[in-house]
Design a protein that fits this description.
Bact_Lucif_Oxidored; Luciferase-like_sf; 9-stranded parallel beta sheet; TIM Barrel; LLM class F420-dependent oxidoreductase; Lucif-like_OxRdatse_MSMEG_4141; two-stranded parallel ribbon; 12 helices; about 45% helix; alpha/beta
Length: about 280
């Protein structure tokens, strides 16, 4: 692929990302900033983060195909890479049926959207596809640089690599709480995955494929929460992220949680601690 993501990145909702935070993430040694929360087709936030930094990559995680027209998205892509070549990865995905009033065939919609990006000159190597199940995972490997799965565990990375084969990108997201207080971490983790994720059919289906049970999902079992939201000291969390790499991922992006209403400095301190555990900087 044309864009070098590095081994580790930070995933954060678009509304929480600022140029100042981007510069700190870059300074700490993370390779990529992932913009979450379905950023709009104008990609203005991505451009502002790239303008504020020098070398960190910015990726969308993900542009929602139902909400962002391919033509406008492609125009924004070309504007950005003209200013920041080699530093932007366009992550796209289909979203979820629960979030759309008109939800046509997701597979056909993905293919059509990628056709439109082809026609608009967005290179295969500069785009990635959100993929969970085998069918879409194969499309990610065939028609984009690779897959950017969300809410997964290392066992999924192992299965995804078998489907993708060698070469295509595999860049999963994983949620983390840098805290040795297991009860606090589980409480925080449950509050962040319960809604909407455990209520969405695509994620439920994938968790069942991975080996969790309906009971795990419905009761938000400790086993499930501990798998989906890593916790412990920075070294323990880093080892959990590295398990994705050992299972076949090329890059893993951490979504770092702190308590609701916690000061910004607490979040930044968690980023610094995790960077130390990962050996960055």
């Amino acid at each position: 692929m044309a864009v070098d993501l590095g081994r580790y990145g930070i995933w954060q909702l678009a509304g929480m990302l600022t140029p100042g935070l981007a510069t700190e993430i870059e300074r700490l040694g993370y390779g990529t900033i992932w913009i979450g929360g379905s950023p709009p087709a104008d990609l203005a936030l991505a451009e502002s983060l790239l303008d504020a930094t020098e070398h960190v990559v910015v990726a969308t995680g993900i542009v929602n195909m139902w909400q962002a027209a391919a033509k406008e998205t492609a125009e924004s892509y070309h504007r950005i890479v003209a200013r920041h070549p080699g530093r932007f990865l366009l992550g796209v995905g289909i979203g979820h049926p629960e979030g759309q009033k008109e939800y046509r065939s997701p597979f056909d919609t993905i293919q059509t959207y990628l056709d439109d990006l082809d026609a608009a000159g967005v290179p295969v190597e500069d785009r990635a596809l959100a993929a969970l199940g085998p069918k879409v995972m194969r499309v990610a490997g065939e028609r984009t640089a690779g897959a950017a799965p969300y809410l997964t565990v290392p066992e999924h990375a192992r299965e995804a690599r078998e489907i993708l084969g060698t070469g295509p990108l595999l860049a999963p997201e994983h949620k983390v709480v840098v805290s040795t207080d297991a009860a606090h971490a589980r409480e925080l983790g449950r509050s962040r995955v319960r809604r909407p994720y455990l209520e969405l059919v695509n994620y439920r289906r994938n968790l069942l494929r991975t080996g969790f049970t309906e009971t795990d999902i419905d009761t938000e079992s400790d086993q499930l929460i501990d798998a989906l939201v890593l916790h412990g000291d920075a070294d323990t969390v880093a080892a959990g992220l590295d398990a994705h790499l050992a299972a076949g991922a090329d890059h893993v992006c951490a979504q770092v949680f702190t308590a609701p209403g916690a000061p910004d400095e607490e979040y930044r301190a968690a980023l610094r601690a995790l960077a130390g555990g990962l050996g960055l900087g």
